[in-house]
Amino acid sequence: MLVALLMVGTSIVSSSPRDPALAADPLSDAIAQQKALRDTLAEQRAALKSLQTTSASLAAKLDTARAELASVTAEWNRVNGLLVQVQSEVVEISARLDELLGEIAKLDEQMNTLAAQIRVETADLDVREALLQEHLRSAYESTQTSLLEILLSADSLDAATNQVGYLLTVSEQDRIMADQIRDLRTQLKARQQTLLEGRSVLAQERDVAGAEAALLAERQAELAAMEANLADLKAAADQKRREQEAALNAAVTASGNVEAQIKAQEEAFAAATRLVDKLIAESRNTTPSARGFRWPEDNFRVTQEWGPTSFWLEPPYTYKGTWYAHFHGGIDLANGCGTAIKAAGSGVVAASGRPLWPWDSAYGVVIDHGGGVMTWYWHLQSRVIVSPGQSVSIGQTIGYEGTTGNSTGCHLHFAVNDHGIWENPRFYLP
Fold first, then answer.
1. Banded model confidence at residue 89, pLDDT cuts 50, 70, 90
2. What angle do CA 371, 396, 336 make, to 5 degrees?
3. How far is CA 419 from CA 294, 316, 370, 374, 415, in A?
4. Domains of the chain
5. E strands within 37-104?
6. Cα–Cα distance, 286 to 295 (Å, whole number)
7. Do residues 405 and 378 make contact, with C-beta atoms less than 8 angstroms apart?
């Protein structure tokens, strides 16, 4: 460690200052543009502050306008609330009235049906009573002849028995008819009572429906009056609002222009900042590490790190004596389909195209850097631009980011195999 510190110190002392960046240096230009935009933003913010100070004189007028507007708005809200309540009542009363009218119509129909039944049954009762009366009159006249006379005047005992049996049969039929008449009268009386009660209920419901209709008319008149009042309040509120907007118009227009300029400059400043960050990141990514490797893309984001994972598509792997069910043997980088893939270090192409076909359909490149270290570049686009045995230098384009093989989207799977072991690429990268 002491020797290393002495070497670093010697390097610092002996190194000469770097040459100033050329005017065409993208990073220097971006930083200069960032500074110029920052200065412009400061000037415009100062102008906006001055404008805001000038417009402060409108505060008293605006406060008065707001107070009047609030008063008118409050009254409008109150009347509008009452209007909503009355509208709800009108709807409710209308529904109740419709329901009552429906009940009245059904009850009226039932009463008409019942009255028709009563008329039919009354006519039937009259017929039965007349028939029974005729039977009784005939029986009475028949009883004027004694049973002894029937027996004495008959040709035989059998004939006399038949005549007596006939008289007895007629009497039994009259008794049955009398029972039917009695039942019919009871039934008719019940129907007449039902009709009387139904008509009473019908009259009550008609009275209620009339009261509901009168209440509905009253609420509708109240609703019309409120709507007229609400329209007047709305017009007053709109007038106050127009006056307030007119008072603010000049200040809003001026401040809007300045704020629009500031917004545009801030967007340009943010773009310049992103450009500076991107150039700095690319500078860091393309600078070789102590082991002589650089990142395989100039600009990217890491979508999956190296090592054990719960992602079920990753195969099992034993690393340093520990078995893992799912292990990601490289780092996944993404910057969009077609991004140029660079050689992480100088070496010789060991394989290209689809080296693992038919087990894996992905396109890729394998570079042998010597000393047992090989780098793998996987899921490339199908256009192959380097061939096995070809020498490549660090930073040379060897392919393009794609999504071939077992891939969930455009990305680069970058792996380092050191003497047959899939090591963490970050140990080799800057």
1. confident
2. 115
3. 20, 19, 10, 8, 13
4. 60-253 (1.10.287.950), 301-427 (2.70.70.10)
5. none
6. 6
7. yes
State the pLDDT confidence band at 386, using cuts at 50, 70 and 90: very high
pLDDT digits (tens, 9 = 90+) for 288-322: 999 999 999 999 999 999 999 988 888 999 999 99
Which of 335, 330, 332 lies closest to 428 in space, CA to CA? Answer: 330
Q: Would you call 148 helix, strand, or coil by DSSP? A: helix
How many Å apart are CA 364 and CA 375, to the nearest integer?
A: 11
Higher-confidence residue of 203 and 184: namely: 203
Residues 6+ apart with CB under 8 A from 218: none
Q: Which of 353, 347, 367, 344 is nearest to 298 (CA)?
A: 344
175 exposure class (CB count in 10 Å sphere: 0-12, 13-18, 19+): exposed
Encoding tokens for residue 171?
């009497």
| Alpha carbon of residue 381 to chain centroid | 39
Determine the 3-state secondary structure of 303 from DSSP: strand
Query: Contact, 135 vs 177, CB < 8 A?
Result: yes
Going by C-beta distance under 8 Å and a sequence separation of 6 or more, which residues neighbour residue 243?
Answer: 65
φ, ψ at 384 (rounded to 5°): -90, 125
Phi, psi for residue 237 in degrees, rounded to 5: -65, -40
> Which of 73, 87, 76, 81 shows the shortest CA–CA distance to 224?
87
234: pLDDT strictly greater than 70: yes
How far apart CA 259 and CA 48 sit, in angstroms, is 7
